[in-house]
Design a protein that fits this description.
2 copies of one chain form a homodimer.
Chain A lengths: L14 H28 L1 H14 L6 H16 L15 H27 L3 E2 L2 E2 L1 H12 L5 H23 L5 H27 L4 H25 L7 H28 L2 H4 L5 H5 L4 H8 L3 H7 L9 H13 L2 H21 L5 H16 L3
Antiparallel strand pairs in A: 1-2
């Protein structure tokens, strides 16, 4: 995890992302502080579970989903200030507070998904911190508690993740009924996308159609399209055309996000990423990179590619696989795809009638998502 | 699992419970059918995950939480028909539909909790069916898929549970803001109660205070108090006094529910219960029964009680433990406690200004909860 040969300076996030992230971080911290205080007073053991969630929430994260939702909200409601409810009748939450709540909701939902994913992948580190299931398995051993440490650690991680899911949901209170529909839909898509990902890895279905389908659910819809759509629905119903335009912007950008993620999982810097490189290959994750290489490999290269999905791959074997991915042109193709997708996204963004400041912000976010180093 | 010496006829649920259960079952089935159809059209593999949820949802369950919510709703709004919104402004869902939706929400939430609990306890059967994590671990072996079957099975069960959580939540759309607050609170209590349960078992904290605390969160609040309170808040704000009166009825009844559950876990009929007897002792579950026996045991009896929490207990050791629980008076004490708690609950119910038909129903439910055989 220290001096990787691929070490490169981390790309700085655009100021429009940092601006949203700091508001959202403050809200997350406020919710966590209040909850830890409340439950610790009742029983210190209950406060512990919330503190585990806090440990994962405050250990980093780019707050991308929050920023996409925020800038879509600004783009739409700065253009149409008459549509913005000053004080929402049912909830009594003001609009500025509500959009930050929604951003915090996305982040709690992401933490929930990561904590549960880390169990499924048996990852030991996340954002540079020990994962919840490993931390709590270790606790059993350290304290000399009884039972199977793995089972206990995973049990705690399931519950801490579930708790994050509830806090996420709680923070959406006050959004419009149309917004809530989208929120429910994105949570179903997130879970089914992860199911498809895991099932395809187990069944060895590493084809392009599957890789794309997983990317649509887990990246395009969940990370970009749905946050954008929720931003413009915050205060009420919205023109279907605008939702479609946001889809046309978010879908290619989401695929670019996933392709960058896949590339970083192979060629990124472990310290910047906060997680080990090569794990996607060990897990047999269905990526477009591997699917492209499979479709364009010689018989010899194919033999090497068949190693994908072997959980015990050595770092030499990982290097060998990366070489084949490079030789088959998969890595270069991946970079070209990212570029084309960002161009398509940018063109779609230009067709949206958003306030100029928001267009600039979403433009900067699009570039960042495609070029990021972590 | 066949001819247990404790075999007794299962107690018939009251008609007021069956009436609600059949409406709720129809709603659950409709949601599941629609979702399985929708996702199977997109990709049959996605439909599979929803079908797993359906398998657990339709394999039984008493729908107790739905019935407590329904009869509290009837009790309050039949008394005050002016407070019942005929058509809820924001959602367009009628009141009869909404209360059944809420009942279905409770049941999906319960399925979510059971699927996740079964991973934590590594249970193999639930309601007589193979648990989700075991079923899907077996699939890896049967299909010759790659990877660790246990990890895959548990991963699928985490996701299928999460999906149930989303459907639960989706079905609450349209309830009042006060109702949503209670819904959020009960979900936090459910997760923290389960955390306390698991943590106490691991740390060997089998004292009375812990057992009671777990019972408050997991049974009193989650199963009875919160469903009752949600029923009377369905259409809007409500007098705090009524919420407190429902608490005074639901809390003792919830403890009685838990004490009955603890007794059935030791002395019940495996076939009627749909799960193995003695598992609570193997898991070291903090129950009042064990705490009472611990506090009233001779040194010799204490040595036997120290077996609690040993996952490899033989059925002989389980019988030995049950003997000690009987000798220390813990089992008799448990039955007396149940009786006193039901009397306290019934007295509290009499003080509530509910429509008579609902009082009768809640009375019958209270008797059933305390005397049930499954």
């Amino acid at each position: 995890m220290t001096d990787s040969p691929n070490r490169q300076p981390a790309l700085t996030p655009p100021p429009q992302l940092i601006e949203v992230a700091s508001k959202v971080d403050a809200r997350l911290q406020a919710v966590l502080d209040e909850q830890i205080g409340h439950w610790t007073t009742i029983d210190p053991r209950l406060g512990e579970a919330v503190a585990e969630l806090a440990r994962m929430t405050t250990s980093g994260g780019k707050r991308l989903r929050a920023a996409f939702a925020y800038w879509a909200w600004r783009g739409h409601y700065d253009r149409h200030p008459d549509l913005r409810s000053d004080k929402l009748a049912t909830s009594g939450i003001g609009p500025e507070e509500l959009i930050v709540n929604l951003g915090a909701a996305f982040e709690f939902l992401q933490i929930f998904a990561l904590i549960h994913d880390d169990i499924m992948d048996d990852s030991t580190t996340r954002r540079g911190a020990t994962t919840v299931h490993v931390q709590n398995a270790n606790r059993v051993t350290e304290q000399g508690w009884r039972g199977d440490p793995r089972r206990y650690g995973e049990g705690v991680a399931i519950l801490v993740g579930d708790l994050g899911h509830v806090y996420a949901d709680q923070l959406t209170n006050g959004i419009s009924p149309r917004g809530r529909q989208i929120w429910d839909e994105l949570r179903i898509e997130l879970n089914l996308g992860q199911y498809l990902d895991m099932r395809s890895a187990a069944a060895g279905e590493l084809n392009l159609a599957t890789a794309r389908s997983v990317a649509v659910f887990k990246s395009a819809l969940y990370t970009i399209v749905r946050p954008l759509q929720l931003g413009v629905c915050l205060h009420g119903p919205v023109d279907i055309q605008l939702l479609e335009q946001l889809d046309a912007f978010g879908r290619p950008l989401g695929r670019a996000f996933q392709l960058r993620d896949d590339a970083l999982g192979l060629l990124g810097d472990e310290e910047t990423l906060g997680k080990p490189v090569g794990d996607d290959l060990r897990e047999g994750k269905p990526t477009e990179l591997v699917a492209f290489a499979m479709a364009n490999s010689s018989p010899t290269q194919k033999t090497v590619l068949d190693l994908v999905g072997n959980p015990d791959l050595s770092s030499d074997q990982v290097s060998q696989l990366i070489e084949v991915l490079s030789e088959t042109g998969a890595i270069a193709h991946n970079e070209q795809e990212i570029q084309s997708l960002v161009i398509a996204a940018t063109e779609a963004l230009d067709r949206i009638d958003f306030a100029p400041e928001a267009v600039d912000a979403l433009q900067a976010m699009a570039q960042y998502v495609a070029a990021r180093t972590s």
